[in-house]
Amino acid sequence: MKKILVLGATGSIGSQTLDIVRQMPDLFSVSGLSVGTNEAALEKLCREFNCPGTCFKRDGIGGLENLLDSCDADIAVNGVAGAAGLEPSVMVLERGIDLALANKESVVMAWPVIKKIAEKSKASIIPVDSEHSAVFNLLSQAGKNNVSQIIITASGGPFRAYTSEQLLNVTAEQALKHPTWKMGPKITIDSASLANKGLEVIEACRLFDMDCGHVKVVIHPQSLVHSLVRTKDGMLYAQISNPDMRHPIFGALVWPEIRENYLEPFDLAGNELTFYPPRKDDFPMLSIAYECALRGKSYTVAYNAANEIAVSAFLDSKIGFMDIPKIVSSTLQDDWSQNPDTLEAIYKADSEARLKAKKELGL
């Protein structure tokens, strides 16, 4: 039986991880839980799964340290949203615990650092994002050396058919209505702006050691094909399933095995699959991300930080939807060529980028 530590237990990823444990108690048990602020929900879940837990608002980072040192986990699922998920990723890997990673910011901000820690502790990093989980499995089956291109799919979000003029007037309420996925507010806004896909491009380049010129994005409204790889002979191979995050979570939990499960298998019959190029002029966050992936250094840190500040301002109705890329682009005009080779340097760049973005907002 595999013992699972769930970080961000009340969020979308955490909740679906716990659903898997409930449905498959012969395979999994919960060794520990963490939440950000919801103490009442934490206490209820700890009683249900008979395990210890920690609440960041109550216990701080020291509570997570104590939990990690005492819970004897085989694998940790990091479903914490945003830059706040980086330190938990580091703490898990330092202890030699395998990391099922849904927090893309850990890779976007600090891949060289967390990769080095994982190699030293011999811990594995298994991606949980549906797109990167798909690529991870496809590369395993096709062979990394045989692959010439990674193709990441994007739903296009709720505004994929909007005109440039319509995009100027969209509201946060509209942006939060994702057509296919049920996610937290920040990642839902990122999906609408294609910033999420931009982060995933950076993440794919780093996780799979692929030049950004060989990582492509296509809009796929049905969200059934989660990613594709093109082999050197020109053939495309895709991973296809229902848009249910329990598929990649389960895959990470049982890796390197492939196991039967209770999830509904996908039936091709009666389904339509369509693909379109992204409208980069109307959704500039994707092009900005490619530039940051190419530049590297602290540019990816600044991209993520400025986007978090801008999204928060949009959710608070302080700026319009199309102001998000303007704030990020303005922030990136500063010099971010410093090499963030330590956590201290990463957090310094992150803090400076947030201050710059807030200045652009007039805050």
Quick gist of this model?
48% of the residues lie in helices and 15% in strands. Helix 13 (299-315) packs antiparallel against helix 14 (323-331) and helix 14 crosses helix 15. The chain has helices at 12-23, 39-49, 56-70, 86-94, 104-121, 130-142, 164-167, 172-175, 185-193, 195-207, 246-254, 285-295, 299-315, 323-331, 343-361, and strands at 2-7, 28-35, 53-55, 75-78, 98-101, 125-127, 147-154, 215-219, 225-231, 236-240.
Structural write-up:
It is a single chain. The protein is of the alpha/beta class and 363 residues long. It has helices at residues 12-23, 39-49, 56-70, 86-94, 104-121, 130-142, 164-167, 172-175, 185-193, 195-207, 246-254, 285-295, 299-315, 323-331, 343-361, and strands spanning 2-7, 28-35, 53-55, 75-78, 98-101, 125-127, 147-154, 215-219, 225-231, 236-240. It is globular. The N and C termini lie far apart (50 Å).
Beta-strand content: 5-15%
Query: Helix amount, in percent?
Result: 40-55%
C-alpha termini separation: 50 Å
**Over all CA atoms, what is the radius of gyration?**
20 Å
SS summary, helix count: 15
**Mean of residue pLDDT values:** 95
| Structural class by sheet pairing and helices | alpha/beta
The rough form would be described as: globular
Q: Oligomeric status of the shown chains?
A: single chain
> Biggest β-sheet, characterized?
6 strands, parallel
Strand order of the largest sheet: 3-2-1-4-5-6
Q: Are there runs of 5+ residues with pLDDT below 50, and where?
A: none
| Helix-strand pattern | EHEHEHEHEHEHEHHHHEEEHHHHH
Number of strands: 10
